[in-house]
Amino acid sequence: MPEGDTLFRTAAGLRPHLVGRTVTAARARVPGPQVERVVGSTVTAVEAQGKNLLVRFSNGLELRTHLRMHGSWHRYGPGERWRRPPGRAVLVLEVADAVAVCFDAPVVELLETRAEGLHAPLAALGPDATADVFDRAEALRRLREPRRAGLTAAEALLDQRALAGIGNVYKSEVLFVERVDPFTPVGGLADGVLERLVDRARALLLANRERVARVTTGPPGDGPPAAADPGLAPARAGRLWVYGRAGRPCRRCGERIRSRRHGDLPRTTYWCPRCQGPGAGPAAGPAEEERR
Question: Does residue 31 have a cis bond before it (omega within 30 degrees)?
Answer without folding.
Answer: yes
